[in-house]
Amino acid sequence: MMRTALIFCLLLITAGVAHAGNFDPSYLTQDQGTYRFEDGTCVTGGRMDEDGIRLLYMDVWRNRMGILAQSRDGVLKVLVPRGYNLRIDDRGERLKLTGPHGHTRTAKRVHKPDSRSVHFRHDGLTLTGTLYTPHAVSGRLPGVVLAHGSGPVDRFGGTWITFFTNLGFAVLSYDKRGVGESEGDWHTATYVDLAGDLDAAVDWLAAQPQVDPVRVGIHATSQSGWYAPLAAAMDSHVHFLIQRAGPGLWIGPVTQHENESDWRASGVPETGIAPAAALWLRLNQLARKNGTREQAQQLINAAANKPWFKLTFGKSWRHVEADAWSRRQVNSKLDPARTAGTLKIPVLWFLADKDQNVPYAQSKRAIENAQKTHHADIELVTIHNAPHSFIIRDADGSRHYTHDYWPEMAHWLRAKNITKHVFRNCE
């Protein structure tokens, strides 16, 4: 057995093609599912549009293997595993990995979720997504809505979709407003607006005849971790909440931490990072207190000629736009840990202790304080030695997805009687 095929490492190395001929993204929708290799290793996933159009499959059960392919120059090329070619037959029923020495491993699809396009409305907008359900099941299903990270995120959620359908869930994944087939513009939306979109998705899912409305919840990731607790607080149809790498604090200290990480990585001297971070936090505190745009502009003007300003703030904050300031005023009011503490539903919260985007220690304290203050049903799980992506590096230098996330999530869902399915390797 070739050990290089058993490591999930996100090395951006290109080789091989899937689906011979010109690349067509519509091909990828038929490749959703769980595939089992001859040795019993399974991978699950499908199209995952993050940083480009991709196929992403993971071994979520034993974390032994991963496959990542991305569209480049009109061809779908394998990035992981290194030096391999990927081919998927026209019906998506067989997946073949061929190594650099010609050795081929074949996986047969053993689970494929059913899917249909759906539409729902909020704030005068039509939002579009896909409902995924396990194939040929009876009885009412638990349901989960996948909430978005930052940027123009669409409905293609790869492994997250098949992970939940393998556990017997109906999964609603939708295009963020202004992305794909959804109307609107996420650039001009506040987190309160996006929370409303999320609630509209939950309400639609809870109303489906094959879904058990008392077992419907949200899986939030990264940016949506700010507003998913608000969505849960506003909507009685939300019966559980999972926060993946979601901040426990309001946007001021979190974006300060994120900026410091970015500035440090780009080579800004520490002598410049400290005053820039202080200004950033002061601006967000001003927004949180409903300070005016003119007051914010005065703070910017006073710092604009400092030698560190161009290296840190650049041109994006030289002039404070009225609409952007209004959105910041709204967004700065959200306090996710405090809101989660008031919820009467179970919450599972994952934090990475090396997160470059979310300050771990501060978020952990905020979540624990909210839990104790309100006696809330919040379970906090730390992903050790991991950044925001939850990709960890072993002692030998290999990189793979954390062992703690998928099993912990599956066991928690079963412990809370949300699903009766046991988390085990595909059969």
Please write out the topology:
Layout: E1 33-37, E2 42-47, E3 54-58, E4 66-72, E5 75-80, E6 85-88, E7 94-98, E8 104-111, E9 114-122, E10 125-133, E11 141-146, H1 159-166, E12 170-174, H2 191-206, E13 211-221, H3 224-234, E14 241-244, H4 251-265, H5 270-288, H6 293-303, H7 309-312, H8 322-331, H9 336-341, E15 347-352, H10 360-374, E16 378-383, E17 391-393, E18 399-401, H11 405-415
Parallel strand pairs: 11-12, 11-13, 13-14, 14-15, 15-16
Antiparallel strand pairs: 1-2, 1-8, 2-3, 3-4, 4-5, 6-7, 7-8, 9-10, 10-12, 17-18
Helix pairs in contact: 2-3, 4-5, 5-6, 5-8
Task: Report on the architecture of this protein.
A hairpin with a 2-residue loop joins strand 4 and strand 5 (75-80). This protein folds into three domains: 3-111, no CATH class; 114-249 and 334-415, Alpha/Beta hydrolase fold, catalytic domain (Rossmann fold, 3-Layer(aba) Sandwich); 251-331, no CATH class. The strands form three sheets. The protein has an eight-stranded antiparallel sheet with strand order 5-4-3-2-1-8-7-6, covered by helices on one side. The protein has an eight-stranded mixed sheet with strand order 9-10-12-11-13-14-15-16, sandwiched between helices. The radius of gyration is 22 Å and the shape is globular. The protein has helices at 159-166, 191-206, 224-234, 251-265, 270-288, 293-303, 309-312, 322-331, 336-341, 360-374, 405-415, and strands at residues 33-37, 42-47, 54-58, 66-72, 75-80, 85-88, 94-98, 104-111, 114-122, 125-133, 141-146, 170-174, 211-221, 241-244, 347-352, 378-383, 391-393, 399-401. The longest helix has 19 residues, at 270-288. Helix 4 packs antiparallel against helix 5 (270-288), helix 5 runs antiparallel to helix 6 and helix 5 packs across helix 8. By secondary structure, the protein is an alpha/beta fold.
